[in-house]
Amino acid sequence: MGSPAALPVVVLVSGHGSNLQAILERASGLNLDIRAVISDRAEAQALQRARRAGVPTEVVSPMAYPDRAAYDAALSAAVEAHRPGLVVLAGFMRILGPGFVRHFVGRLVNIHPSLLPKYRGLDTHRRALQAGDTWHGCSVHFVTDELDAGAVIAQAEVPILQGDDESTLRVRVQGVEHVVYPEVLGWFAAGRLGLREGQVLLDGAPLPTPKIFNWKA
């Protein structure tokens, strides 16, 4: 009996692409077939990372469409052309409309730089520092219509150290993102992870709380 076919994946990006790089480096070992990397920005450095890895790239710019609904339809068509089993948001900075989310529900995941439900949206590192938090981190979640509100699959915590600023905290959080995100994608590829009626399933059982990755600074 041969190995199972690799999971076809499309990754959506907007910027630097450090999480994409972490995924690309582990893709074969996790049985992921990165079919395409698609961006809303032609200048995204993540596209260069994909090209160096031999992965096809595409730009679907919102400037070419009259409204968000039209853009979402075009983006959905571009993604669906690669017949993905999973769509991965890796620093994709546009809010996806309900039509796109509904089409890919249960196979659309994101990583967010906070311990959700804390600090949905932007500037998470600054907000954690301003709040005087002692711990910060990242969350991998299924995507829903509501921003950063989908069922959380896994989280990793990092300490906020004396003297931290946004830059040092961002680097520490990204370090755990690069470990956690590929690992969770590997669960999906192995058939261990799913979503049913808004509930995360891991190894066939409901996951009542996110899986926690322990991390030492």
Structural class: alpha/beta
Strand content: 25-35%
**Average residue pLDDT:** 96
Over the alpha carbons, how many angstroms does the gyration radius reach? 17 Å
Approximate helicity band: 25-40%
Total helical segments? 6
- CA-based shape: globular
Provide the CATH superfamily of the largest domain: Formyl transferase, N-terminal domain
User: Architecture of the largest domain in CATH?
Assistant: 3-Layer(aba) Sandwich
Count of distinct strands: 11
Strand order of the largest sheet: 3-2-1-4-5-6-7-11
Largest sheet: 8 strands, mixed
SSE string, helices as H and strands as E:
EHEHEHEHEHEEHEEEE
CATH class of the largest domain: Alpha Beta
End-to-end Cα distance, whole Å, is 42 Å
SSE layout:
Layout: E1 7-13, H1 18-26, E2 32-39, H2 45-52, E3 57-59, H3 68-80, E4 86-89, H4 98-103, E5 108-112, H5 124-130, E6 135-142, E7 152-159, H6 166-189, E8 193-196, E9 199-202, E10 205-206, E11 211-213
Parallel strand pairs: 1-2, 1-4, 2-3, 4-5, 7-11
Antiparallel strand pairs: 5-6, 6-7, 8-9, 9-10
Helix pairs in contact: 1-6
Describe the structure.
With 217 residues, the chain is of the alpha/beta class. The chain has 2 domains: 104 residues, 3-Layer(aba) Sandwich (Rossmann fold); 105 residues, 3-Layer(aba) Sandwich (Rossmann fold). It contains 6 helices and 11 strands. An 8-stranded mixed β-sheet has the order 3-2-1-4-5-6-7-11, covered by helices on one side. Strands 8-9-10 form a 3-stranded antiparallel β-sheet. Strand 8 and strand 9 form a beta hairpin. Helix 1 runs parallel beside helix 6. The chain is globular and about 45 Å long.
